[in-house]
Specification:
With 389 residues, this protein is an alpha/beta fold. It is built from 16 helices and 11 strands. Strands 2-1-3-4-5 form a 5-stranded parallel β-sheet, sandwiched between helices. Strands 7-6-11 form a 3-stranded mixed β-sheet. Strand 9 and strand 10 form a beta hairpin. The longest helix is centred in the C-terminal third of the chain and has 24 residues.
Length: 389
């Protein structure tokens, strides 16, 4: 059971949230508050568990972002989603780690999506049921390729792989979506350099074990084997599948189409640590590079959005991630130094320039001179090399 509280000074919106939540299976409304102050007092005194708080942003006395910050201090285990009529706060929502940002007027589907994201964020070991899910054995499964490859049901059940090759084989097949993957390609990808006969034996035993792993979770017939073109395999899921990479690509397309900051935040949240990060799967390297390049562009867009609002301190975190992705790009180092100056952190900027000047000089790149950056930090932020003459 998921316990949800809604906070909104607009009574019609508050009542609507309560009514919609009551229609969702597996959800219990823990309270409706039209006052942020009363809500925080309740959270300080209640012993009842709370899983999720739906917050309006523009409220008199204390806005939703401030409420979220205080809630994090007193009840850090509680998740927050914003329900608001104002899209321009999406970047701030990212700063307080909100799981969702829903624009009014919201629908049942909007709330179901938020609850699904709550389940994903809490992980496969969550004990809550699937809110709003149909009563069927063929419930939805979530595949995560950002970070370690995992597959878990909306009910919290996770596929447990008996060995690493079973996990990698499923990741590889899913990587190719619904396309057939040739046996020879699989052998080269998973057992490169191995004796051909031994590799064939390993493939057959891995396919057998993977099928057993999936069937143990009720996923029967997911691995289809075909005899064409020397033999191939493909995934045919017997249930609904949600894929975090597909969600990411959708959010990116929506951001590019509409310029929606909410979609920009959503895409960055989904990317997390990167595609199959830490897996060591050589076959995934081209896709990792492709997605990382797009992610870098999103980070820079977020940096520029914060800077455009003169919120330079908030721009530092995505800027630091960008520098981490491209440690030898002097333009990004210059932008970070400029942001430190624009944030009033001149000592940190001086130290950073000194440290990076040595590294960039060793790589043959243009030296990062603190005096030049300090003379025109905005010029360096805009183009990475000072004002354009």
């Amino acid at each position: 059971m998921i316990r949800v509280i809604a906070v909104d000074d607009e009574l019609p919106a508050l009542r609507r949230a309560g009514k919609l939540l009551e229609t969702l299976e597996g959800v219990q409304v823990g309270g409706l508050f039209d006052s942020p102050k009363l809500f925080l007092e309740h959270m300080l005194t209640t012993s009842e568990p709370v899983d999720l708080v739906l917050l309006d942003i523009e409220m008199p006395g204390m806005n939703g972002l401030e409420v979220a910050g205080r809630l994090k201090e007193i009840r850090p285990e509680v998740y927050v989603s914003f329900l608001t009529a104002y899209e321009e706060y999406a970047l701030d929502a990212f700063g307080v780690e909100a799981i969702d940002y829903v624009l009014k007027p919201f629908t049942t589907e909007d709330l179901m999506r938020t609850l699904e994201r709550l389940e994903k964020r809490r992980g496969p070991h969550s004990q809550s049921g699937a809110a709003g899910a149909p009563a069927t054995d063929k419930h939805k499964w979530n595949i995560s390729s950002f970070g370690p490859f995992t597959i878990a049901s909306e009910k919290g059940e996770q596929v447990r792989f008996r060995n690493s090759k079973s996990r990698e084989l499923l990741a590889l097949l899913h990587h190719h979506r619904d396309k057939a993957v040739g046996k020879s390609y699989i052998l080269d990808a998973l057992w490169e350099g191995r004796d051909a006969d031994r590799a064939q034996t390993n493939l057959h035993s891995t396919v057998y074990q993977l099928r057993k792993d999936l069937e143990a979770c009720g996923l029967h017939g997911a691995i289809e084997q075909m005899k064409t073109a020397g033999g191939s395999y493909r995934l045919q899921w017997p249930c609904a599948i949600e894929d975090d990479v597909a969600e990411y690509e959708l959010a990116v397309r929506e951001y590019e189409r509409t310029g929606s900051l909410a979609q920009l935040v959503r895409a960055i949240q989904l990317y997390g640590d990167g595609y199959l990060s830490g897996s060591g799967y050589g076959w995934a390297a081209p896709r990792q590079a492709e997605l990382e390049l797009g992610y870098a562009g999103l980070l820079e867009a977020m940096v520029d959005a914060y800077a455009g609002q003169s919120r330079h301190e908030l721009a530092l975190s995505p800027m630091q991630k960008l520098v981490h992705l491209h440690p030898l790009d002097e333009r990004f180092h210059a932008k970070l130094a400029a942001l430190l100056l624009l944030s009033g952190r001149s000592a940190d900027a001086r130290e950073y320039c000194a440290m990076m000047a040595e590294l960039l000089d060793a790589e043959g790149a243009e030296e990062l001179d603190y005096r030049k950056v300090a003379a025109d930090p905005m010029g360096y932020f805009r183009n990475g090399r000072g004002p354009i003459s």
